[in-house]
Amino acid sequence: MYILGRDSLVGADENENQRRKRPRLSTTDELLKNAETYAGGFDKGDLPLPPARKVAVLACMDARLNPQKILGLEEGDGHVIRNAGGVVTDDEIRSLAISQRLLGTEEIILIHHTDCGMLTFSDEEFGAQLEADTGNRPEWTARSFTDLEGDVRDSIRRIAESPFIPRTDRVRGFVYEVETGTLLEVS
Ligand SMILES: [Zn+2]
């Protein structure tokens, strides 16, 4: 996750003007061409709904972190849940409860990573910025953190303490090094 500096934020009106001037082919349009190519070579239409490897991965949404590639997960193998930081909030508990109770997963892999954007600001700062810009402060907090490994341990604890997740004996946490491509276990 990359945090934009305050200077690079543009107002809504300016954004709209830029959008009108820009040639029509957006990144989304470009990516849709990739999707057509993918569909053209697709041969996995008969995969079952429950993940074959019985695993759920919770990872930061950082663009440099590719959980499927790192772990060698193919279509149908596992659930991959992502958010800013790879943190465990009520919504991740919701997804993990569905993953385990309804779709049979038994193991959980948590992945944080070096150089995470969540290390670069505080919840208070971000909340104050939102309030200054919009007049509203959200009910949620950003869930930023200052200690990577500490937050991985905290995430494991939150899952273990949740009454809604039945299998908590195989929950392991990792820090992925974006500089080396290495996944390091947090003990
Ligand atoms: Zn991150």
Descriptive account of the structure:
The protein has 187 residues and is of the alpha/beta class. It has six helices and five strands. It has one domain: Beta-carbonic Anhydrase, Chain A, CATH 3.40.1050.10. It is 36% helix and 17% strand. The chain is globular. The model is unreliable at 6-10 (pLDDT under 50). Bound molecules: zinc ion.
State which percent range the strand residues make up: 15-25%
Count of separate DSSP helical elements: 6
Per CATH, the architecture is 3-Layer(aba) Sandwich
Helix percent band: 25-40%
Number of domains: 1
- Give the termini distance in whole angstroms: 24 Å
Determine the mean pLDDT: 92
Number of strands: 5
Strand order of the largest sheet: 2-1-3-4-5
Top-tier CATH class: Alpha Beta
Shape: globular
Run of helices and strands: HHEHEHEHHEE
Radius of gyration: 19 Å
Name of the CATH superfamily:
Carbonic anhydrase
List the ions, cofactors and other small molecules found in this model. zinc ion
Largest sheet: 5 strands, mixed
- Low-confidence parts: 6-10
CATH T-level topology: Beta-carbonic Anhydrase, Chain A
The secondary structure category is alpha/beta
Short description:
By secondary structure, the chain is an alpha/beta fold. It has 6 helices and 5 strands, in the order ααβαβαβααββ. β1, α3 and β2 form a beta-alpha-beta unit.
